[in-house]
Amino acid sequence: MMPKSTRLAAVRRFYVYLVAFVSQVAMLFGINDLLDMLSRAWLQSDSLLQTSFVRTVTAQSIGILLVATPLFLVHWWLAQRRKDEVTERGSVWRKLFLYGSTATALVVMLTNAHRLLKEIVWLAVGAPIGPSDAIPAGWLHWGVMAALGIGLVYYWYTVLAADGDLGREAMAARLVRQFFLAAAGLIGLSITVWGARALIQLGLQALVDQAFSALDLNWWRLPLGGSISQVLVGLWLLHAAWQQWQDVVTLHTAEGRAVMRRLYLYIGILFGAIATLTPAVLLLREGLLILLSADGGSTTELLDRLVDPVSFIPVGGVVWFWYWTTLRRETDAYGDSGQSTTVRRIYAYLVAATGLILLWVGAISLLRALIDTQLMGEIWHEPLANGIALLIVGAPIWAIFWQRVQRVAGRNDAEGAGERNSWPRKIYLYGVALLGALALLLSLAQLVYQVLLMLLGEQGLTPTSNEVAHQLADSAVAGVLWAVHLLAIRADGRFEKAPEAAASPVDPAARRQQLETQIAQLEAALAAARTELAALDEHPAQ
Length: 542
What we know:
It is a single chain. 84% of the residues lie in helices and 0% in strands. The chain has helices at residues 4-43, 51-80, 86-89, 92-124, 134-162, 171-211, 221-251, 259-291, 299-334, 338-376, 381-409, 414-421, 423-455, 466-502, 508-538. The chain is flat and about 105 Å long. 30% of the residues are buried.
């Protein structure tokens, strides 16, 4: 149990930092609303801004500031008054407040910078953005708020640096910092990917429209500003978070194998893989539909459908490559900890499970489409294309990652035993075995049901009907995948029993001689100790 003084200090910190954070957020809301209203009333001739409305919003904003500002200043002073205490600087509540305040300042800075950059790009490309007198009002408001956000980000960073424990915090405080950097990096990555994809999509769509003489060839100007702004804002956030993390790794190399950092890298890899493979499946599907001579509409409609998935693939590929090479480089440089090894296993089995699901669904779709083609004489283009596309993507993913983990699990050493006994592997194997058994049970039950109906004279059901064939196909796929994973479970079990079975019998004569030698050595040591003790008794110390 914590001492009473420690519990009281934790309660005090919780109160002080919570009130300081809430009052700070209220201040920012008040400043934002006040700046918005004053800039519009001053610079924008808007008939909708009635005098009573301006007075109401201004009074509300000033009222919030008059209450929130003293609250924040007093409680921040109370927090800073104890900054010389090591326990205060390293407390988790202080880190939560500082990183939460930094996140709030980043939101203020980036949202307003995004709006400002978007309109600047709009003007640069000649897009109409509304009345000219609306520009200064919005720019003044967004520019001041962005500058305020920059100032706050810098201030909170100096406070964090002044605490003196950046990169070597206590466990809970270190997790707060790592979570903040990982979240900031992933948010920046998402914004960047979405903006870059939109830029590529705009370029491709503009080329399609130009080739087919669309009615409006200048539609791209408005969305261009938002896309460029997203890329700039997202890249800055992504780079800033990564650079700060790199600075910590440079000072403390153990940070390079931290579990949160590895988790961030693996999530980035998954993000890039999903952004690449999902549109690849859609492209394969469209290509297969064309090969199967399915009616996909006009050429313009087909190209319009292809623009969106094509725009994702290069962006996702770059993200996938960068995060994967970074992970490989850091693994070689800093090694793995126990926790980072667990994260690697979670990633491997999660990707294997994803590939298995795609393979499973694709195999069922393909078999059903082929069955319908044979029994009904018609080609169902979409199910056939869906099944083939899912198989082409899912089967290699599952096979690669399944073989990779199986090679490690098949080793008769400590690493192999660790892989076989790891909880991600247990969850994957038993989870797939359970799902396979349930799917097999349900499909066989449906098959028996169909057969019984057929035997009882149900019209429309024959041994060659597609309902019966579908259940057979579902059972076959579920049975094969269930058997593969059940065999893996049995193989893991045999490894555990192998050391006991392989233990060679002990030679009794050799073992007797070994024990007699040990006893003789112990008796000699005991006799020497007794002699020394007797000598001490005869000549006691004076």
